[in-house]
Amino acid sequence: MLEACGLKGHRIRGAQISPKHANFIENADGATTHDALALMAEARRRANEQFGVLLQHEVELLGPIELPEL
Fold first, then answer.
1. 51: left (phi > 0), else alpha (psi -120 to 50), else beta?
2. Residue 26, strand partner residues
């Protein structure tokens, strides 16, 4: 779904969706937690907008970290 949204290689600051497999986020250049969460939120937003699906993350977020609501 993320690939169909054109997100392979999409980048927010230092975090990038892998150009090889759209289900992975890579640290392309000093990514912060904020960068990775912003990228995850953008991917969820696009999948919801294009397909009407609310994606759930597979990673366990530790501490007071949450993805923004859509």
1. alpha
2. 16
CA 16 – CA 22 distance, rounded (Å): 10
Q: What are phi and psi of 53, to 5 degrees?
A: -115, 130
Average pLDDT of the segment spanning 28-51: 95
Positive or negative torsion for Cα 61, 34, 12, 49: positive
Q: Which amino acid, one-letter code, is at 17?
A: I
pTM for this entry: 0.86
Distances (CA, A) of 36 to 19, 22, 39, 52, 64: 15, 14, 5, 22, 15
